[in-house]
Amino acid sequence: MSKWVYGFGGGRAEGRADMKNLLGGKGANLAEMANLGIPVPPGFTIPTEVCTYYYSNGNTYPAALIEQVAEALNRVEEIMGAKFGDAANPLLVSVRSGARASMPGMMDTILNLGLNDVSVEGLAKRSGDARFAYDSYRRFIQMYSDVVLGVEHHHFEDILEEAKTDRDITLDTELTADDWKKVVGKYKDKVLAQLGAPFPQDVHDQLWGAVGAVFGSWMNQRAITYRRLHDIPEIWGTAVNVQAMVFGNMGDDCCTGVCFTRDPSNGDNDFYGEFLVNAQGEDVVAGIRTPQQLTKHGRELQRSDLPSMEEVMPEVFRELNAIRHKLEAHYTDMQDMEFTVQQKRLWMLQTRTGKRTTNAALKIAVDMAREGLITRKEAIGRIDPAALDQLLHPTLDPKAERNLLARGLPASPGAASGKVVFSAEDAEAWVKDKKEQVILVRIETSPEDIGGMHVSQGILTTRGGMTSHAAVVARGMGTPCVAGCGEVRVDYAAKTLKVAGRVVSEGDVITIDGGTGEVFLGAVPTVQPELTGDFATLMEWVDTIRILKVRANAETPTDAATARKFGAEGIGLCRTEHMFFAPERILAVREMILAANEKGRRTALAKLLPFQRQDFTDLFNIMQGLPVTIRLLDPPLHEFLPHTDAEIDEIAAAAGVEPDAVKARNASLHESNPMLGHRGCRLGITYPEIYEMQARAIFEAAVQVSRETGRTVTPEIMIPLVGAKKELDILKASIDKVALAVFEESAYQLKYMVGTMIELPRAALLAGQIAESAEFFSFGTNDLTQTTFGMSRDDSGPFLEVYRAKGIYEHDPFAQLDQAGVGELVKIASERGRAARPGLKLGICGEHGGDPSSIAFCQSVGLDYVSCSPYRVPIARLAAAQAALGDAKGSGMH
Amino acid sequence: MSKWVYGFGGGRAEGRADMKNLLGGKGANLAEMANLGIPVPPGFTIPTEVCTYYYSNGNTYPAALIEQVAEALNRVEEIMGAKFGDAANPLLVSVRSGARASMPGMMDTILNLGLNDVSVEGLAKRSGDARFAYDSYRRFIQMYSDVVLGVEHHHFEDILEEAKTDRDITLDTELTADDWKKVVGKYKDKVLAQLGAPFPQDVHDQLWGAVGAVFGSWMNQRAITYRRLHDIPEIWGTAVNVQAMVFGNMGDDCCTGVCFTRDPSNGDNDFYGEFLVNAQGEDVVAGIRTPQQLTKHGRELQRSDLPSMEEVMPEVFRELNAIRHKLEAHYTDMQDMEFTVQQKRLWMLQTRTGKRTTNAALKIAVDMAREGLITRKEAIGRIDPAALDQLLHPTLDPKAERNLLARGLPASPGAASGKVVFSAEDAEAWVKDKKEQVILVRIETSPEDIGGMHVSQGILTTRGGMTSHAAVVARGMGTPCVAGCGEVRVDYAAKTLKVAGRVVSEGDVITIDGGTGEVFLGAVPTVQPELTGDFATLMEWVDTIRILKVRANAETPTDAATARKFGAEGIGLCRTEHMFFAPERILAVREMILAANEKGRRTALAKLLPFQRQDFTDLFNIMQGLPVTIRLLDPPLHEFLPHTDAEIDEIAAAAGVEPDAVKARNASLHESNPMLGHRGCRLGITYPEIYEMQARAIFEAAVQVSRETGRTVTPEIMIPLVGAKKELDILKASIDKVALAVFEESAYQLKYMVGTMIELPRAALLAGQIAESAEFFSFGTNDLTQTTFGMSRDDSGPFLEVYRAKGIYEHDPFAQLDQAGVGELVKIASERGRAARPGLKLGICGEHGGDPSSIAFCQSVGLDYVSCSPYRVPIARLAAAQAALGDAKGSGMH
Lengths: 894, 894
What we know:
The structure is a homodimer. By secondary structure, chain A is α/β, with parallel strands linked by helices. Chain A is built from 35 helices and 34 strands. In chain A, the strands form 7 sheets. An 8-stranded mixed beta sheet of chain A has the order 15-25-24-17-18-19-20-16. Chain A has an 8-stranded parallel barrel with strand order 27-28-29-30-31-32-33-34, surrounded by 8 helices. Chains A and B meet through helix 26, helix 28, helix 29, helix 31 and helix 32 of A and helix 26, helix 28, helix 29, helix 31 and helix 32 of B. Chains A, B: Its EC number is 2.7.9.1. Chains A, B: Residues 532-883 form the PEP-utilising enzyme C-terminal domain. Chains A, B: Catalyzes the reversible phosphorylation of pyruvate and phosphate. Chains A, B: Pfam families: PEP-utilizers (PF00391), PEP-utilizers_C (PF02896), PPDK_N (PF01326).
């Protein structure tokens, strides 16, 4: 016969901590504590298997469950020396959910179950406190009716209000036992009136009602939403824990509290916690009374007037402190515990691995490794790479007041305040001329806004997702960004933004938190990040473990310097087009685009050459011999053309043509789907002189820096959007020719590589041919995801949310690499590429290069390096180490 | 030692007809004729291998070549009884190119080689005609100097003009032997003056100069362009044929001519040809003299006053006629021959398979099969499927005068005249109200132009390629279309088009030829196609051979009826969105898009339901039980919204909203890359009610037609743009629910299938999962090509031409399936799909479904059917038969 119930208590248990999948986190840890000899109120767990059974069998239970529950309940009665529903010495129980992953507050809980008109008298007698007994009874009726019977809370609140009004008092505590007795009567009448049936007096009916309610709550809307947000599969189900009640509110020798084996906010190895004398757990949560500190040290730190537990209940405190050490040593991690003291007797109600700030996580992991509690490898595995991000940016001062205006997507972490401007030009002007700090607010951004984005403290857009232009560029720059803030309406003409009736004008100050997506009116003070010694220590350990190299995507000297600071081992993607938007360059770029023929284009390109050469000279100098992969021009030319009349007039005058000619060129370059248009190496094929100029700039810079520093630069030139070997052959031949010319002119030779992006499905499939010519591959997984899914990053917002809600895609494929589809192409290309050219260098330079689960995938298919934005380099280093340790979770997508 | 020279003549030869790759077409056939005992002037062929050697060895020859040529030349001298360069009896030779594929006029030819100041006297004596000898010498100097020495033609023309002026005569024929002698002297002086060296007198120098010139001409610009246009690889090279000269201009017992074993214009089994008495081949080509007919029958047909060869040279004619029969029987195909009669002796100079009109090709193939000369299978293999297209549409009367205006792409075959209109609305109004025939002229077309395109006689666009919207829709409708006519400038405001200074206004008549891409001013009469008995016969044979089924892409009753007429075995793609643009429907569609919520959308959709049901009722009735695959709504919703102010006001009024709300919706639906946006099944997922309405319309129509006709309809419902199994699962469940409801309401059951397009790389890769839910796959290779290449069909024009010119893509991948990339995905999807669901029905419904080489590929990967536009159904049937016979050529792409 299947085992449907697992008992615990009285110094032993049928479960264990490692049976979390079956018993849920709470049940498994209760069993574990019982086995360790730690005092837990006895009880039993109905495992998650029953939940699965329940949902796949039309909300029914396995046949043997009722009998097994009865047996387990008997054991609890024996241990507690009380009887369920008994008139003299009634056993009361709690019924709680307990899923494999913590889902705090998402599912239902029933306390004080087992009370009825008879047993309440027994409780009154045994506790010697009728007021307590009837208060417990009315709490039970209220909770049970709400959760199990569906009688809404407010009905009971009204009755309670009435009772207090009748007595002309304001606090619950002023009500007497008799008052509560009357309230209980009225509660029962209300249930009868609402349901046409009395409140159940049979305690077994009560129990089964509560169990059903807990299983039912697995599918309530809150729980469904929570699971979606936290990637928890529905199939896991929840367990139900039935456990003897203990009371922290039976007098002043009672208390209840929560504690952590170390300080969860800073990680210090101090016993940390709070408790309330003569109170129940819900009183701690409700926050009506001010809790007292557990330790004297804690009380002093908090400058609290209330005595600590260490001082008022020294013996129980010693017992609790011993349990603290026992549990942390046993679980080898910081524990979050709940306890109740009933008449001087300590009961542990829960232990679990405690949540902590990222700073605390770092300190605890490093400390524990030093203490010998865990290994360095374990310490590395303890840190969530994604959470590191918050350490690298300023954050809002947690104590500061704030006036929430709107909420968008947390697109680039960090917090910043500034005056609102509505155009990139204004941003540049305000910063330069007025020396103001600004927040750039746009419906969406485009490459021509780069200058303005660069000088802004933060960026707010009303459209676009986590991988929109604004988000990607902002993350690359380390600038805070809130994207896709749909409730905000921008009026460019009026220079205002409106949200829910509130109007913010140009020059008004706002604050954005790119880590949460929140936007506040006014300035909110921020706290600067400190990369503590623990951070540095962990990063050192990380670098001894990982196999994948980590590079950064960077094109400006600032980005490159940041990348080095964060430990990047080279530049994996330098996007040369970003260099073309500076005011002194864009005119020459536009002149090139408007030129009537190749001669005209070459004349304009000659003006760009010195700028471009200086760009690379700077990068090579900063990177000090580390590899630099430079991608030649990628975006379609129309991205560089002006669209306002004033700009059109300016460029027309400069180029010596009519404004209409500029407009005509604009029109002729218009594309229905620019993503799939005349861009990437297609530009190099149709206008060879562009790539020739870029290659010349690279080689001249490389020669100059090598010669001046004595440190040889080995440029890696990368051709974008290749779909056929012959594209690469033609362009490589042209680059080789330029190299030869520069080496002859300068009487200096150096090595270089020519490789390609793999960002089209065709390139992945034909990787074997392409690798015959390419000396390296870099997977451009942004575009590869767009083409493989046939889904534009910029346009997918409206349906991607629905897709995630309906479970079609578990993750945003632009944030987390789709292993089933895009991943197969990466694998195919890697295999075919390496088969054609053994040792072919493979890397990834899409947004996924900074995503931990994608990094694990990159390791699994044998890439040599990942490249990500500078601020994600530490994250990638950690994720790479975890991947090497095999700790990272895989990504699933159906 | 390698063999570098292949001799022929004197009743035997070292080559054969099947050595065409080595000897070129001309050389192989000369050898074959020699072996057959047919009189050919003796000579030798320097094979294509030498050309390859020449280009891969710095324009040098293999060492043994000179000796082998000398030997071969000796044999020719022996056979002719003359000596090269001899003063008494000189041998003259021609030097001609001869490639594997015919490249008429693209490469160089030298005649009369072997003449110098000495041998010209020998020729004069032997022929007894000094005038002939010196005329030949001056022709030789002129030709050789131009081709080999680079002295331009006009220098010699000037001298000739001068000579005639001096003598005060106008015709060359009036010049005497002495005149020619003087001209020769001046020619030689001119060469000396131009080159600083005399005209070569050494005949062996002459020969090697000519051989080098022929090899050199393989890489001249004309030849390179021709090869690109005709897909001839450069690596093939050309052979050189050196052959004894024979003269048709040595008197009235001499002649020269060309002839065909059957009539190449209509295919009749009549000996057909022309000849000129006392003339050289170039005189026939020059067209100065009117040629005479070969046969009496021919003379009578042509009502010619000039006597036929049959009448004036009956013996030689009989000999020629015997050779005609011998050659046709030997080659089992219609031959195109050249001959010369020198002093009553017949010499065959060339035979090759003759070019013919498609009508003639059909008749000849069917006749020859009936005559037992070839098998039916061979007859099927003889017809170029693509050429069939010209039989199915009206063509310009070849005799009509025409005034060429411009040239664009031949986007949809057929010729049509009409008055120019510049908008779809005007087209509809002019046709309906004024009963005019119109040609719709647009910069480009969009789905909302469908109505206007439908009523137009022809369509002309200035932008877009062979696979632009206009081209695809026009081919589907069988409407003539010239697309991408870049030289034409359209001014919508002025309602004019301009081309090279000429202005055409609204209402002016133009004619377009969609088979050639030409646009003419005024009306040019057209000729209607006749699907002759031979066509029908061949199609019958075809259907007994082919394995692939052929369906049509059709949505209107007209299209469906056309498809059936052309032999379609079902509808493979019915694009439901095309049904939404009719005036009475578009308003409801827009109301649906503008609705604030699902309820509003359902109200609008309820208005569309009856229309949509009628659409399917009509189709099911026409198709009489043949399968009909219906694709649910595919394009993004913004394609249906109006963009002009007037239209916006209209829809706003109808929907009861402000015009600004319409504009706001327009803006909110705007997409950067609509091709990769919110379309296909993404609409079905986000707005389930749209697909529900369509499914209901399909099932209600199917029930009604099945019940009324007693012929069961089995609808095949196709979900577009699927990228994940779960998309299909959700939509299939919804369709199944609608089906159940309709079946219950109507008390009628029928079978149906739900399948999916495979048009995204991800769908192809995950085909195994998708096939668990999909009952059929239809490859949407248009979109699959766009996503696999990352290349928008609409935007690729500007670079695709350059790509083809540089040899990156040999073919337009939108016209001919890219087997290496897209093809691999089709293969992967087919294999994985069939592995998951054995017997899974597979088809293709992209433009490639009507392309012969792509059809061969479809057969090779095991598809069940191809679906193409109705007018291409016969082409697809023929191509499918050829694929079954293994005759189709593969497609190459690097």
